[in-house]
Amino acid sequence: MSSERYSRQADIVPRQRILDCKATVIGVGAIGRQVAIQLTAIGVPHIQLVDFDLVDISNLTTQGYMYKDLKHPKVDVTAEFCRQINYDLQVEVVLDKFKRSTPVGNTVFCCVDSITARKHIWDAVKDKVNFFVDGRMSAEALRIVTACDDISRSYYTTTLFAAEEAHAGPCTAKSTIYCANIAAGFMLAQFTKYLRLMPVDPDIQVNLLASEINVGQV
Fold this sequence. Notes:
Blueprint: H1 2-5, H2 15-19, E1 22-26, H3 30-42, E2 46-50, H4 59-62, H5 74-85, E3 90-94, E4 107-110, H6 115-125, E5 131-138, E6 141-147, H7 150-158, H8 177-195, E7 203-207, E8 212-216
Parallel strand pairs: 1-2, 1-4, 2-3, 4-5
Antiparallel strand pairs: 5-6, 6-7, 7-8
């Protein structure tokens, strides 16, 4: 049974390479929850979930949580959902804000909602991880920035603009679950390229409303 579980992705997701991965997902909101679910489905054996927040009513539509999850920690709810996909999964939950002292795995999926938090996380983990990918979203626009070698790591730093330069849209136009799913998919696509030792795109920007995609070059 276990050998058949991943049979249809065997040529896309190298089994031995993925078994060496411990993935840390920082922020399990709109994008991060979908990332955790997809990581579980493709066979990452060990996932760490970091978030301090509880599920509230607005999370049911934009983040895919359920009514029964209300007022429960997002990390606990997401961990339990992932275990339903793979009972062999090792899940570690950190019900807290990310701190510099927080231990992380060798791959990090940054799914936070502020540039200040991204800077803090990057400064803490940049010398500790092999693969780092940052998912950003505003309404129907998304951006995926990946750092996994010297050139892309240097490029990532240039994307950490000052907080006051960030676009501040209305709170009713912040996120949609379909954009979050697509963003998570792009993050996982970059991860599986990395696992296959293929070139990774350092910067992908997609505008769903305009049907535009831009793949940035370092």
